[in-house]
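Protocol step 4 of 6: structure prediction from sequence.
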Amino acid sequence: MVWSTADLCDRFISELQVAEPLFQRFGGKTSFAGPAATLKVFEDNSLVRQAFESPGKGRVLVVDGGGSLRCALVGDMLATLAIDNGWAGAIINGPIRDSRIIGDMPMGIYALGTCPRKSEKRGAGERELPLQFAGISISSGDWIYADEDGIVVASRELPVD
């Protein structure tokens, strides 16, 4: 499957939401796409770990961390779980850590930046909620397309051939 977010915008702009360019791209995988699985957390990555421990089935984990920059929600250990369990990628509305190591991994991640501090582990958060950040709304099952040019969201899988 060959696609780019720019080409998708040219063909399907009336069906797409385009995320504001707030995110940095991390990971060795420069593009990824798949249906969204959503989490809402705040400075606690317990549900992120639970998600990445489960079969990803080619989905993209979208985590609304409230935009907090005080602690990382994903590090190299969670990225390894995601790869091992078949996740296509992740969008993190918060920071990651271990960015140098993640940069060499076959995982695509967009995040707000980096922070060396780990998160709390209280088990707090919610799954499968509609999320709103970066000028977009994402529900579980929406299709995420991300590459070097940014992130777009569609309510369905788009024909990309």
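Step 5 (inspection) to follow. DSSP finds four helices and eleven strands in the chain.
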